[in-house]
Specification:
The chain has 562 residues and is an alpha+beta fold. The protein has 19 helices and eleven strands. The strands form three sheets. The protein has a five-stranded mixed beta sheet with strand order 6-8-9-11-10.
Length: 562
Amino acid sequence: MLTLGAGNRLRTGRWLLLAMLALLHSVMLLGVGSPWSHPLLLAHLGLFLLWQPLWHGEREVGYGAFAFIALAAAVAMFWLNWWAIAFWLTGLFGLVGARIFVFRDRWARLLHLSVMAYLLAALLLWVVPNLFAAQSTVEVGRALIWYVLPVLLLLMAALPVHNEQIGASQTVDFIYSLLLFLLLALVVLGSLAFMTLAQLGYLEALLRTLFLMGLMLLALGSLWNPRFGFGGLQVIFSRYLLNVGTPFEGWLTQLAEAAQREPDAAAYLRRALGMLAVFPWLSGLSWQSPDGGGQIGQSAKHEIRVQEGELNLTMYTGQSLSPAVLLHIHLLAQLIGYFYQAKQREQRLRDITRLQAVYETGARLTHDLKNMLQSLFALTAITQSREEKTQQLLLQQLPILSQRIGLALSKLEQPQLESDVPPLSLAAWLDALRLRNKHQQIDWLLPDKIPDRKIPAALFDCVVDNLLDNALRKRQTEHDISIFVKIDAEPLCVTVCDSGDAIPEAIAASLMHRVIASENGLGVGLYQAARWAEQQGYRLTLTSNQRGKVCFELRCPVPQRK
């Protein structure tokens, strides 16, 4: 009893093919009139059913395949003639020729090329001469069928061919097979036409037919890929292959429109797969994705599985599809997968943008709360002093502090209204800033006349308070350094400098461009202040970074003259 592996090797090996050809050779050698030809041809058909690459041997034979088998058996028993043999050899030539490009092993290709040469020689030099009663050619073919072709079969048996895989042996390109069948049939019928119309011998008619076929193939080859400006038949044929059921360009347009209209990745996937399910050669499909799964239509016995990223797609068809249609299906599935991944990335970017907005708002509020706590600390220090102007200072500072607390509460409620906060005059803001830092040793370099203009007080408070806080922290480690604040009128510019050590180059290069690790906090103060200033149309820069002079500058945009 044969094991499964041995059965597979028998079914896919070359010995089955050679045994099938040996039985067919015996039928041609004995002739159609011999009583042994019928059983030999039936045995040949039985081996062909084991070898054939059209249906898998383990699958159930359908009604169409059963009808074909019954018809071939009936012809072999009751209507065996040279026409039937010629038709059968032409069909075998097309089947074998369509499988050559499947095999990667050169010996396997050489084996199938030898089989094609055997079938072509037997058809043109033995079967067709007997069919057309060309006696002179029959005598030449007799030596071929008795001596040359058996030697060719022995040479094919001696080739070092390895057993091919089952999946590879079960692949037949229908287009190639049909083209080879029609080409060989045209050679036979063309020879018959020359013999009948031009009253030529068979060999002369065959040579004329082959010469004309060669010219025709040469012309088609030049038209397939021309070099004189014409697009060629290749473009037309490729366009035909890419239009299976519906125009390919129109389907791509619908797919792109669905990607634009559907903001959600899951909704887009359902719509795109619904568009794919309308193709007539699909009975249904199912999918699995990170957003869930689903099924459209009904399942069938043939499945096509495609995986594109995290999308697993299974398509069901009622019949086996050709390689061209399979290529088309994989292309469409890849396009859907690419658009789906793009929608996923777009959704992640939206989530990141929302989280970034929350983070930036929280960071700004943190600095606002820190500044207000510093103001409260300054007011507490003022109230503890016994100066006569204490009451007056409290009356001036408490409304400003109340305004800043109200602004922080409005940011918590509606962060998007930050730009709608009413501006404050530069003189009032400067007085409040000096009062908050009255107890600190800070030098103030002010112009003779403060310009009468409005500024975004929240932005200026955030920037200057951060700069002063960093300078005061530096003073705790570097004693006796001086800090000064300078204000220029035209154009408006606020500069905060200290006489301490320079900022390290590695930190200075990334300062205000990204978050910098800080020993005294999260290191986001200047980064957030610079981003906020940029959003408001201002610019925060490090203008000087040398020992004894480290300066930051907040510059107002210069108004354009009309």
